[in-house]
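The protein record filed below.
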Amino acid sequence: MNFKSFKQRRDFLKTVGSAAVAGGLPTLDALSNVALAAGSTGTTQVGSDYKAIVCVFFYGGQDNANVLIPYQDGDATGTATAATTTEFDRYAHDRSNFSTTNPGGDPSTQAAGSGNLAFTRAQLAATALPGTTVNSITGAANAAPGGWTTNTYGRQFALHPNYAELKSIYDSGKLAVIANVGPLIAPMTRAQWYGPAASRPATPRNLYSHDDQQKSWMSGTANITNPSSGSGGRIANNPAITALNSGAQVATQISVDGSNTFMLTPLNPDPTAIAYQIGTGSIGRLQTATTTPIWSPVGTVTCNTGSSFITANPSSPYCVSGGPIAVNNGYSYNATLKNAFLSRVNTTSEASSVYSDQWRQTMRQSIDTQAVIAQAFLNSPPTEEIVAPFAPVIASNYLASELRMVAAMIRASSQLGAGGSALKRQIFFVSIGGFDTHGTEFWVNNPRNNGQISKAINAFWTAMGNVAVVGGAAGETARDHVTLFTMSEFGRTLDSNGAGCDHGWGAHHFVVGGAVKGGKIYGQDHNVASVPAGTPTYMSLDSTAGAVPRIGLPPSPYSGTDRIGPSKLNHALSRGELLPTTSSDAVVATVAKWFGVPVADLTGLTGVFPTLATAHPAGFDIGFMS
């Protein structure tokens, strides 16, 4: 099922909250009256052996052609040629519904119904990335076929104009772009895609389907239509990770965005692996209560989120408040109801139904976890260092609200391990929707959503830089222990359908973190093996041509008679959508290896990624993690 707007998807999740139990996800909508005290009650730090993964999902299919955009050409020697913009011109032509007159990037200047999806070079100047002429992994100017490479032959590419903050992180060397990535079971060429079905390599199930490709990205099993577990769930359930979190007071996985395939655990999981849901909460300031609230897990303190109280009490500690579980709504001071509810929850078994017992266990875990988190937030609060970076961007930016809660949970990790010790591993899931832009909503959703993404991730990055590390080296912060990566079910077509763009396959994504070898564009099999003298490399045809440096642009996809044949560039399909050269599993597996999952447990039929070895027989590690 696809949701064209964020609100539509959130409303749906609210109606199916009980389904989380069946999926192994105990529910807790948000923390209630949880005081997150500031000041001297705790030190803002994480453990030196702590690591966290943050998965950010873009629901609807992110428009890859406006994420990483050709800006300036290079030449056969790997140096930039300032006066040449042939590749950009092709991008602008094909995105503007094949027009040479419609300006791009500003819907107010476009002819009605033109369907122009292109930006102008002037709009891209501020987010243009420097060209790369040397392979960043091997040091060689030309990577061997099959190798991971970031050589763009002197070309410059630009990020979306609303990615100013992400551009800054890229320039600092801590954001990597993974080009032309998507679900893959086996390597595939354009010739094989359009060739006889009998000789075509295995492809992901139900390509171009929102629901199926969401599951493919999240599950790491693109060969299965209805996966029973997700890659995040299998990472959390790996013995090496469960051993690190043995005795933890909270689950390894925390979703701030409801149930999802990414966090589904295998059958009979370790208790620490089963995901726990939490809400974003609302920032307030701590207030001493005259009486103890019935449902408060931390005593006579409440979180006052009223703007007048916050303004009038600037020295009061920060806190976060929300509604915990459905039974609390409207009954906060009903002791009779509370006692009856707890009586049932605390019963070992009513011998009536396995479902009743499962419900009680789930509710008991939610209540217990709420109390643990509440106390941890008292001891290790999201002080000014956590709250302040989000303050300028939190309004109308739900992703920022989600990442603020992630930052608060990371901040509290020092209290959530066994016996109140530091937790060593955490996995988080957040999302933003509204990327299914087939129509004129493209110029509303696309700029707005990408601006929110850039600002939310930047606020999170700033907050992580404010969290110290116990026994860390000089200058070491939580940034060095947290890796964030993005997902979306698929990319979209390069060309316009007259209003917006349609479903594709490959896309471009980001990885952010202190351990990320960023400031580079990664991708497999995209260098040019040989270049005829005097021929620009983007025009050269060869067996390894891929997303970079071409970003999926065929030499002439909309002229001539051969629009779908194998003579066109190897990894661009008939409408400029990308045929992936890098599997989505390889991205997550590279992060999972850094996270602590043994390499031997990542591949193979019983591994975290069962088809990783078939998708990348020469090796999966992309090389973007230190």
